[in-house]
Write a structure and sequence with these properties.
By secondary structure, the chain is an alpha/beta fold. It is built from 14 helices and 15 strands. It has a 9-stranded mixed beta sheet with strand order 14-13-12-11-7-10-9-8-15, sandwiched between helices. It binds nicotinamide-adenine-dinucleotide (NAD). Nicotinamide-adenine-dinucleotide binds next to helix 1.
C-alpha cells in the first residue's frame, strides 16, 4: 500500500499560547510528525506567541522537550533539528501592546497564514482586536479556536459574536478533536462508501445506538475548570454530540464542508428534549489511594457530574423509535470509546428460539485502538446440531493496514486541514449554538432542583442507575473495557 501524503501550501502558523499545555502535548508534537512525514513545505514557519518570558532559545528547548516526550526514542535527530529550525518565538501580551509590532514585522505576504488561539476564550476578543489593529488578517487568514466554546448558549453566542465581528465564518476553525480521529471519518466512509449499510441504517433495522466515551483519569489538575463545567458541558455537548451527528445524519450530497455541516445541524435540531428520568449523573468516589471527585475539585459540596448517561431520540422519519444512549465519565474501568450500532434481531428464527445468535452489531471503536467490527451470526462449529453464535468480522486497523495503521493524531490532521482551508471537520457557529440549545435546559433542570449526582466507585462501570437506564428498556450497555 502506498502512503499518500497530500501536500499543503507553504504556511505561517502562529500559535497564541505556544508555551501552554495544549501546545506542548498536542500541537507541537503533531506539527513535528507532519514535518517528519514531509508534509510541511519548505519555507513554512511555526511561531510561538505567548506571554511567557521566553526567548527564542528557551522556546526551542520547550518545543524539543515536547516532541521528545511525545515521540520517545524513535526520533531522528536530523529531522528534529530541521524541525526546530522552522520555529520562531515572540513574547506577546494579548491584553497589551507588547510584542505586536514584533509579530507584525515577522509576517510575510504569500504563505497561508493561520492564527491558533490556544488560550482561554476570555482572550479571544483582545486577540481578535489586536490582529485587526495591526493589520495581520488577510481575507484568507485562518483562525483556529479551541474548546470550550462557551459555557452555555448565551456565552457561545457571545463568543460567536466576538469572532464574527472580526472574521468571516469561512475563516474560523472551531476544533472538536474527536472529528479529527481516523475512525470518526471512517464512520462516514463505511456509511456512505458502501452499499451494505445505508439501506439498513434506520429505525426499521436498528434497535438502538450506544455511544460511550470512558476515561480512567480523574479531573487531574483541571479541577477548578471542571467543577464549573462537568461531563455534560465538557464531553456531551461537543464530542458525544458530534459522534451522534455523524451516526444519525442523512447522506450529504457531497463531502464538502457546508453539505456535511448542514446535515449534522439537522440532527441536532431534531433531537428531542430529554426527560429527567432518562438521565443519570454520577460523581466518582475515592479509592484506597486516590481522592474522590469533591477532593479533586477542592469543593466539598460540589454537585458537578463526572459521569453522565442519557437516552435521547432523534425526532425524524429515519430514527423515530430508535433510541440513542450516550454515556461518558471519568475514573471508569477502562479508557474505552466507541459507537455501537445494534441491529434488531431476526424477526423469526428458523433454527428455533434457543439456537442463539441473531445479534448483529457494528462497533466503531475510537479508543484505545481504532477499528471497526461487525458482529455476524454463524453456525457454532462442531457436531452439536444447528447452534448459532455471533462472531466479529474484525477490521482493526493495526492488523489490516499494517504500517499504515500509524494514523495521524487528530491534531495533526486538523491542523493540516486548517492549512488546506478545509472546514469539513470543524464546527460551524450554528452547530455549536444548536448543541448548547439542546444541552442548556438539561443543565438548568438539574440546577433548578439542586440535583445531586450519584456516587460511583472509581474504576467501575459508573453508577448502577446507568445500568438500570438500559435494563428498563430490556437492553444492556456493552461492558466498558470488555
Ligand atoms: P495553559 O494555561 O497551559 O497555557 C496558556 C497559554 O496562554 C500560555 O502559553 C500562556 O503564556 C498564554 N497566555 C496566557 N495569557 C496570555 C496573554 N495575556 N497574552 C498572551 N498569551 C497568554 O492552557 P492550555 O492547557 O494550553 O489551554 C489553551 C486552550 O486550549 C484553553 O482554552 C483550553 O481550554 C483549551 N484546551 C486545552 C486542552 C489541553 O489538553 N490542555 C485540551 C482542549 C482544549
Amino acid at each position: 500500500m502506498v502512503s499518500r501524503i497530500i501536500p499543503v501550501e507553504q504556511f505561517d502558523l502562529i500559535i497564541f499560547g505556544g508555551t501552554g499545555d495544549l501546545a506542548r502535548r498536542k500541537i507541537l508534537p503533531g506539527l513535528f510528525k507532519r514535518f517528519a512525514d514531509g508534509q510541511v513545505p519548505e519555507g513554512s514557519r511555526i511561531i510561538g506567541a505567548a506571554r511567557s518570558e521566553m526567548d527564542q532559545a528557551a522556546f526551542l528547548t520547550f518545543a524539543e522537550e515536547a516532541v521528545r516526550d511525545a515521540e520517545g526514542d524513535k526520533i531522528d535527530a536530523t529531522v528534529l533539528k530541521d524541525f526546530l529550525a522552522i520555529l520562531d518565538y515572540v513574547a506577546i501580551d494579548a491584553l497589551g501592546e507588547e510584542g505586536w509590532s514584533a509579530l507584525a514585522e515577522k509576517m510575510r505576504e504569500g504563505p497561508v497564514r493561520a492564527f491558533y488561539f490556544s488560550v482561554g476564550p476570555s482572550l479571544f476578543d483582545d486577540l481578535a482586536r489586536r490582529l485587526q489593529q495591526y493589520d495581520l488578517v488577510k481575507p484568507d487568514t485562518r483562525i483556529v479556536v479551541e474548546k470550550p466554546f462557551g459555557h452555555d448558549l448565551e456565552t457561545a453566542r457571545a463568543l460567536n459574536k466576538v469572532l464574527s465581528a472580526h472574521f468571516d465564518e469561512s475563516q474560523i476553525y472551531r476544533i472538536d478533536h474527536y472529528l479529527g480521529k481516523e475512525t470518526v471519518q471512517n464512520l462516514m466512509a463505511v456509511r456512505f462508501g458502501n452499499m451494505l449499510f445505508e439501506p439498513l441504517w434506520n429505525s426499521q433495522y436498528i434497535d438502538h445506538v450506544q455511544i460511550t466515551v470512558a476515561e480512567t483519569v480523574g479531573v487531574g489538575g483541571r479541577g477548578g475548570y471542571y467543577d464549573k463545567s462537568g461531563a455534560m458541558r465538557d464531553m456531551v455537548q461537543n464530542h458525544l454530540m458530534q459522534l451522534l451527528c455523524l451516526t444519525a445524519m442523512e447522506p450529504p450530497a457531497k463531502f464538502d464542508p457546508d453539505a456535511v455541516r448542514d446535515e449534522k445541524l439537522k440532527v441536532i435540531r431534531a433531537l428531542e428534549p430529554v426527560e429527567p428520568h432518562q438521565i443519570v449523573r454520577g460523581q466518582y468516589d475515592k479509592t484506597d489511594s486516590e481522592s474522590n471527585f469533591r477532593d479533586d475539585v477542592e469543593n466539598p459540596s460540589s454537585k458537578t457530574e463526572s459521569f453522565v448517561a442519557l437516552k435521547c431520540h432523534v425526532g425524524n422519519w429515519r430514527w423515530a423509535g430508535t433510541p440513542f444512549y450516550l454515556r461518558t465519565g471519568k475514573r471508569l474501568e477502562a479508557r474505552d470509546s466507541e459507537i455501537i450500532v445494534v441491529f434488531k434481531s431476526t424477526p423469526h428464527s428458523i433454527f428455533g428460539s434457543d439456537a442463539g445468535g441473531g445479534h448483529n452489531e457494528l462497533r466503531i471503536q475510537l479508543q484505545p485502538d481504532e477499528g471497526i467490527t461487525l458482529k455476524v451470526t454463524i453456525k457454532e462449529p462442531g457436531p452439536g446440531g444447528m447452534r448459532l453464535m455471533d462472531v466479529p468480522l474484525d477490521m482493526s486497523f493495526a492488523e489490516t493496514l499494517g504500517e499504515h495503521a500509524d494514523t495521524p493524531d487528530a491534531y495533526e490532521r486538523l491542523i493540516m486541514d486548517v492549512i488546506r482551508g478545509n472546514q469539513t471537520l470543524f464546527m460551524r457557529d450554528d452547530e455549536v449554538e444548536a448543541a448548547w440549545a439542546w444541552t442548556d435546559p438539561i443543565i438548568q433542570g438539574w440546577e433548578a432542583v439542586h440535583d445531586v449526582p450519584k456516587p460511583y466507585d472509581s474504576y467501575s462501570q459508573g453508577p448502577t442507575d446507568a445500568t438500570l437506564l438500559m435494563q428498563r428498556d430490556g437492553r444492556e450497555w456493552r461492558e466498558i473495557g470488555a
